[in-house]
Amino acid sequence: MKLSNKDKLILNELIKNGRVSLDKLSKKTGVPVSTVHRRVKRLELKGLIRGYEPIIDYSMIDYNVTLFLIIDLEEGIDTNVTLSKLKSYNKITELHLLQGSDFDLIAKAKCKNLVDADKLIKEVMKLEGVEEVNSMVSAISEKESLVMPI
């Protein structure tokens, strides 16, 4: 999708604060409020803007462990079934199919502690189609975001 400079200005401001009012968005970008409204609606309808989510500091609610699961699937299984099961785990925040690796998937999860992480690892290992699971715990998260400036 080709973005205009106005679209990029609007999107970059929404990345900073998804709750900003259209009036403030207009002032920050120098784009008339009617144009901002029309462009935001267009970007939502086209699916570029898929939603507005709060950024949670999970450590403040005792989710202190960031866990990465590197998952190898059995040959010939229906990947979609396993993906669907993994997507159903609330603690798994990201799930990526891999290429150029001996493993098939990487999942990122938030857990309360190491016991909670171990429980999740064991549950994932029991899933049909899962052949092997390697896990890593993040010692320190230096940067964590699902967005980047455009």
Characterization of this structure:
The chain is elongated and about 55 Å long. Helix 1 crosses helix 2, helix 1 crosses helix 3 and helix 2 packs across helix 3. The two termini are 13 Å apart. The longest helix is centred in the first third of the chain and has 13 residues. It folds into 2 domains: 41 residues, Winged helix-like DNA-binding domain superfamily/Winged helix DNA-binding domain (Arc Repressor Mutant, subunit A, Orthogonal Bundle), CATH 1.10.10.10; 80 residues, Lrp/AsnC effector binding domain/regulation of amino acid metabolism (RAM) domain (Alpha-Beta Plaits). Helix content is 36%, strand content 20%. The relative contact order is 0.16. Strand 2 and strand 3 form a beta hairpin. A 4-stranded antiparallel beta sheet has the order 2-3-1-4. The protein is α+β, with helices and mostly antiparallel strands and 150 residues long. It contains 5 helices and 4 strands.
